[in-house]
Specification:
By secondary structure, the chain is an all-alpha fold. Helices cover 86% and strands 0% of the residues. The chain has two domains: 64 residues; 85 residues, no CATH class. It contains seven helices and no strands.
Length: 181
């Protein structure tokens, strides 16, 4: 019986050693998993921080770009012809609403004494205008379309230039020096 009891004690000690070794191995594996989780969380936090700072930068650039787009003095300095064309277009569109021009109103006042002459002028002008009414309307539409297209192209160029691309006239101006003429 003593032999059985020694074998049993040896088996229990072996079992305890295996349990201790298994516990040690599990603790090491848990530490490894814990480290991987910490690294993953740190990487995710870093990625989120990068995305947030990138979005903040993009929003800041967009706000600056929008402010510059609607800054009339800046746009006038940068794109004088675009501003002139836009002004002409707005003036044309607003002037066409009344149907009569300021010159026609002044002419009526100045020549009110000579009603025959005024009627003759109105008759001739009205006849010519009525005769070419369709062509004048077509020319007006074509002019408005050309102006709008030109303004659109200039706006696209200025927006692409404000996104970091240099405009051709800027590179030429940078290369030139002020030489006495």
């Amino acid at each position: 019986m003593k032999a059985d009891s020694k074998d049993l004690d040896r088996d229990i000690d072996n079992a305890r050693q295996r349990i201790a070794a298994a516990q040690l191995a599990m603790a090491e594996k848990l530490e490894g998993v814990e480290k991987q989780i910490r690294d993953t969380v740190a990487g995710a936090e870093s990625a989120v921080d990068d995305v947030v700072s990138s979005v903040k930068g993009t929003i800041s650039e967009t706000v600056h770009s929008v402010k510059r787009t609607f800054d009339l003095p800046h746009q006038t300095r940068e794109h004088p012809w675009l501003v002139v064309g836009g002004s002409v277009l707005v003036g044309y569109l607003l002037g066409g609403r009344t149907g009569t021009t300021r010159i026609a109103k002044v002419n009526r006042v100045n020549h009110s004494d000579d009603s025959c002459r005024q009627q003759l002028q109105q008759g001739l002008a009205g006849g010519v205008l009525n005769q070419f009414k369709g062509e004048i309307g077509s020319l007006r539409s074509a002019a408005v379309g050309a102006i709008v297209t030109a303004l659109w192209e200039m706006a696209k160029q200025s927006l692409s230039a404000s996104n970091g691309q240099t405009r051709p006239h800027e590179t030429q101006q940078r290369g030139q020096t002020n030489k006495p003429g």
